[in-house]
Design brief:
Layout lengths: L1 E5 L2 E3 L5 E8 L6 E8 L6 E6 L5 E3 L2 E5 L4 E6 L8 E9 L13 E2 L3 E5 L2
Parallel strand pairs: 2-11
Antiparallel strand pairs: 1-3, 3-8, 4-5, 4-9, 5-6, 7-8, 9-10, 9-11
């Protein structure tokens, strides 16, 4: 499966963004999908995940749009410390969310989120 992350941009503190992860060459229903972020000089960290049975991990709103073969992440009340490159990743047939980046075999290219006034 190939993943394409989109929806990033420049937003003011307190603003919101909706990030999308679109898949081709496979059906995202068959994958757990995680959203990670990586700020400069920091490790990549999981921010939210949805498993194949739609259990969710993380404090952000993540959802599937099966008709569009996408997974979306809504980020509200953004802060400057949320500035990072956001990546979506997929793990085949995972009924539980995994927290570590090395557990995901498929990655999108990342989308930059910058929170600044």
């Amino acid at each position: 499966v190939q993943l394409q992350a989109s929806g990033g941009g420049l937003v003011q503190p307190g603003g919101s963004l909706r990030l999308s992860c679109a898949a081709s060459g496979g059906t995202l229903d068959d994958y757990a999908v995680g959203w990670f972020r990586q700020a400069p000089g920091k490790r990549r960290e999981l921010v939210s995940c949805i498993s194949t049975n739609n259990s969710v991990k993380g404090r952000l709103t993540i959802s599937r749009d099966n008709g569009k073969n996408t997974v979306s992440l809504r980020v509200d009340n953004l802060k400057p410390e949320d500035t990072a490159v956001y990546y979506c990743a997929a793990r085949l047939r995972a009924a539980h969310c995994n927290s570590y980046s090395w557990e995901y075999g498929y990655w999108g290219q990342g989308t930059q989120v910058t929170v600044s006034s």
